[in-house]
Design brief:
By secondary structure, this protein is of the alpha/beta class. It contains ten helices and 13 strands. Bound molecules: uridine-5'-diphosphate-4-deoxy-4-fluoro-alpha-D-galactose (UFG).
């Protein structure tokens, strides 16, 4: 069976491609390489350098590939503060990009659309842990652009009798054991890659963004899920959707929260390495606590995240050490 993976040269998309190929699926990647890396592309995948918003180019891929049955859509912009500065770009890529894919997919035999959404659709949650049915109230253009895409996908599926699986990610981290794929690039923005960069280079100070939140140690609490566990859920979700002709929305997290300080302390303890850090001011738009209730994915998809925080830290460290 053939799966089209958008963003297959990116961080999460490349992990999905490796797993799909390992499981025997045929994989076609489209990626414009604006954020992705050629070195992430699996040698057995067919690659087209195409922008998801380009109608003619995407259509050509469907024409030449013919029998694409599933789209796994990872391509997108993901940096919250940047989305506040560049809302038009975020809606263009994250919402309009989905619109373009769906508009083309409706003319072909695409049975299911698997979508990377985000916990940012919930905004500042009223209660913790977060359930899929909880209120959606995104507080930045990133979350808004993803929630808009969710609505589009649901309406498309209903109108054209197709299926979808929407995954709302919590904090994805870690890297594949093969050492080839992981978070790459010079401008790191996420917690674990930054903590590990400081562990590898003591001249880099790590800043904790605020220690005056209403949490046990004052720093923000997040739910860290290993990228291999995350992409495994995508394959399970795809297979479930095709087998049962069903659609649904799932949180992908571990249902466990760790504070920023705990992540820092655990990294120092696990890696037996010093990290220079300081307390800085809060970062705008950070909710104090975010962690999932993942019961729905564990029950319906029989998904079980298997990596502990310690293993996530080790895996991130291993990758960063070899890809400095
Ligand atoms: N943090 C620091 N110092 C840093 C970087 C981050 O203290 O140098 C803190 C942040 O303030 C936050 C926590 O670490 O409290 C996690 O921050 P990240 O930037 O790693 O991740 P976010 O929780 O902001 O965002 C993640 C995903 C988004 C998603 C969001 C939903 O990256 O795509 O979770 O909760 F929308």
């Amino acid at each position: 069976m053939k799966v089209l993976v958008t963003g297959g040269a990116g961080y999460i998309g490349s992990h999905a491609v490796y797993l799909l190929i390992e499981k025997g699926y045929d994989v076609v990647i489209i990626d414009n390489l604006s954020k992705g890396f050629e070195s992430n592309i699996h040698p057995k995948a067919k690659f087209y350098q195409v922008d998801i918003r380009n109608h003619n180019e995407v259509n050509k891929v469907f024409e030449s590939e013919k029998d694409i049955e599933v789209i796994m859509h990872f391509a997108g912009l993901i940096v919250v503060p940047e989305s506040v500065e560049k809302p038009l770009e975020y809606f263009d890529v994250n919402t309009n990009g989905v619109w373009n894919l769906l508009n083309i997919a409706k003319n072909y035999n695409v049975k299911s659309f698997i979508f990377s959404s985000t916990a940012a659709v919930y905004g500042e949650p009223k209660s913790i842990p977060i359930n899929e049915d909880d209120e959606k109230n995104p507080i930045n253009p990133y979350g808004q652009s993803k929630l808009s895409a969710e609505y589009l996908i649901q309406s498309w599926a209903k109108a054209f009798n197709r299926q979808y699986v929407i995954f709302r990610y919590f904090n994805v981290a870690g890297a594949h054991e093969n050492g080839k794929i992981g978070v790459k690039g010079k401008s790191l923005t996420h917690l674990l890659p930054l903590v590990i960069s400081s562990a590898l280079d003591l001249s880099k100070t790590f800043y904790i963004f605020g220690n005056d939140y209403e949490t046990k140690d004052g720093t923000c609490i997040r739910d860290f899920v290993h990228v291999n566990d995350l992409v495994n859920a995508h394959v399970l979700g795809m297979e479930w959707s095709l087998k049962n002709n069903k659609s649904d929305i799932f949180n992908l997290g571990t249902s466990q929260g760790f504070s920023v300080k705990e992540v820092l302390d655990k990294s120092i303890e696990t890696l037996k390495i010093n990290i220079n850090y300081q307390i800085g001011p809060r970062r705008a738009g950070d909710p104090g606590q975010l962690f999932s209730n993942n019961e729905k994915a564990t029950k319906i998809l029989h998904w079980q995240p298997s990596y502990s925080l310690e293993e996530i830290i080790k895996s991130e460290y291993q990758f960063r050490k070899n890809n400095k």
